[in-house]
């Protein structure tokens, strides 16, 4: 909410902050998928009444705990902007920092309650330097690579919305020390509705490359893909209830497992093609790369499963190829090479949507094998 020195107070609708780990917010969104318009109005009016009672002047956040019956209770007020204020900026189109400064300078609020809009849906993920695969152990060290996704929204710019925004104070080559909070960036998306915002956030997480330290991006991707989160069926105990035994990469089911098989086979085909170009080979006995591969997967019980795949029509320069597996065909074209981040080169894949989450990169897929012209089947 916002209050000025002239007795004007308005509320800017609510933010949903129930996705928490050990009482620390992980994902925030606005509006809330849980409360009704009637509850929203009643909650806002209570916040305004509280602020007027103390003659509050500035931006502030009034927190409420909401029950299953949408009854709500006041625990505290934070007399400041909060980390998640960008999601409110997205749906209202207001620059909260600017308004807070203008109010502090004695100006009147330039809008009334009736002028506050609620446009679309916004989600924020807190990007933390911690390892979700090791009980969220803090991760420190050099940021060897820090490559956020492409952005189309920026702080203090309320004209370009419906996109992706990254707020951060770190950069590639910098060091993450042990002395401060683990959050190194905020990833914010704004969509037309909640499903659109979730889709944009999953795509943005896929494109966020961090190397040198561990981050919670895989865990964020898993949360965004969880059926209960997508349905808006969650509370403050969501993470504790659904990840009581810790987080594992295989907790993230891929929307199209056959595509992962095709991708693994194609990546191994490219690696073997690179190896085939090594100099000094005996004439007549050069290493030749075949088309038949086997991808070894691990099921939920840790047992090996083998799935054949054929990579044909491989074109080294363009990176295009046709991969056939499990009765399906995938046309994959990418100039990606080993040691490059996944988003460093453009790629396309037909007949399979590009919906793989970042967490899928840590899924326990062993590798592919290739049958060479000499009949051997080396494992990579």
Quickly describe the structure.
This protein has 380 residues and is α+β, with helices and mostly antiparallel strands.
Characterise the protein shown here.
- With 380 residues, the protein is an alpha+beta fold.
- 23% of the residues lie in helices and 29% in strands.
- The chain has eight helices and 22 strands.
- 33% of the residues are buried.
* Count of discrete alpha- or pi-helical segments spanning 4 or more residues: 8
- Superfamily (CATH H level) name of the largest domain: ATP-grasp fold, B domain
Please outline the major beta sheet: 6 strands, antiparallel
Structural class: alpha+beta
In percent, how much strand structure appears in the residues?
A: 25-35%
**Rg measurement, Å:** 25 Å
How are the strands of the biggest sheet laid out side by side? 21-20-19-18-17-22
CATH level 1 class label of the largest domain:
Alpha Beta
Overall 3D geometry?
elongated
**How many discrete domains?**
2
Give the N-to-C terminal Cα separation: 58 Å
| Number of E-type strands | 22
Find the CATH topology of the largest domain. D-amino Acid Aminotransferase, Chain A, domain 1
Order of helices and strands: EEEEHEEEHHEEEEEEEEHEHHHHEEEEEE
Can you give the helix content as a percent range? 10-25%
- Can you name the CATH architecture of the largest domain? 2-Layer Sandwich
Low-confidence stretches are 350-380
| Average pLDDT number | 86
